[in-house]
Amino acid sequence: MKPIFAKTPSLGMRLIIAIILSIILIISDGRSSLMIQARNMLETAVSGLYYFANTPRSILDGVSGNFIDNNKLQMENNSLKEQLREKSADLLLLDQLKVENQRLRLLLSSPLRQDEYKKIGEVLAAEMDTYRQQVVINQGRLDGAFVGQPVIDERGVVGQIISVGEKSSRVLLLTDITHATPVQVLRNDVRGIVNGTGLNKELVVDNLPRSIDVVKGDVLVTSGLGGRFPEGYPVAIVETVENDTKSQFARIVARPLASFDRLRYLLLLWPIAEEKNYSQSLSPEQVREIVEERRNSVNPFERLKQMSNKKTEVQLETKEEQDVEEIDENPASQPDIESHEENHIEQGAE
Fold first, then answer.
1. Of 47, 201, 325, 346, which sees the most CB atoms within 10 A?
2. pLDDT for position 129
3. How would residue 58 be classed by pLDDT, with cut points 50, 70 and 90?
4. Tens digit of pLDDT for each residue in 191-224?
């Protein structure tokens, strides 16, 4: 009896058949164009499968790329923001340094006489209430500071040192209610005492008669009396003169010239001992001369300009002298004045 199903070839036989078919296809592909056309048709048929199989990967790559780009942009944005903050801080610091540099320039150009020594101090702390007007500076006993030492800024008198530590000192400001400064009016040499009021923009002069010749706008400078402040330093400008009929004295309100609302750098003065003794006997006229001397020392450019003008005048005078010497040496080059006059007379006669 024959079996219903034919017996299939063995595995070895199928392998041999596959190898033979492969060899035939390889030879046909190299010798005939039919296989090329068949291969192109197969590639066209399965290309859609390639795109379909590659779609999930493309989506994942795009999503991951977006995440990476977003994170990168955020990092760059944060870095740029940090750089912007640093640059802004540098600009603010630069502006502050410019302001401090300007203050130091003004401070160093404060009027001084040649026999005075100065040194810059920085304000460390300030007490600016109604009953206490003081600051602490970074100059102490080791720096040569002493009690009673006068302190100024680029505009005028600030106060005096009342206590000294090793590396710091306390300055009693001009506006403190316990501070009094001998002054004189620059215009007419009237002398008085300026007292603090506890306000950084107000000083008063009391105990002057109502008939005193003081008007708004008068400049008050140190008189040198008392030996504490050198003479001739600007203190305040008169704002109002109050004459109360019930009182025998006028009340003069003045505005201090020093910038008490923005004290940062101060100038400590070391007047020589001879000047301390000499200031006790200075007349108002001498104080006025010293003020003019200080004013002239403030602007070095004017001094250079004056020197330049003097130099030009000397050069012109020298040139004139040389011209005169050349004329004296060469008398033939001088014009014949007599013959010129004779010709002029003859022409007039004709």
1. 201
2. 87
3. confident
4. 999 999 999 899 999 889 988 999 999 999 998 8
DSSP state of 176: S
- Residues 76 and 124 grouped into a single domain: no
Amino acid letter for position 179: H
Q: Do residue 124 and residue 249 come from a single domain? A: yes
Return the H-helix or E-strand segment holding 218: none
Map tokens 């080791």 to a residue: 142
Query: Percentage of the chain with pLDDT > 90?
Result: 28
- Number of helices (H) and strands (E) in the chain: give both, helices first: 6, 12
Please report, for the domain that includes residue 231, its CATH number: 2.40.10.340
- 239 and 98 belong to one structural domain: no
Angle between helices 11-31 and 34-108 (to 10 degrees): 80
Give the Cβ contact number of residue 142 at 10 Å. 11
Helical spans, DSSP H, in the chain:
11-31, 34-108, 273-279, 284-298, 300-329, 337-349
Triad 241, 287, 120: Cα angle to 5°: 95
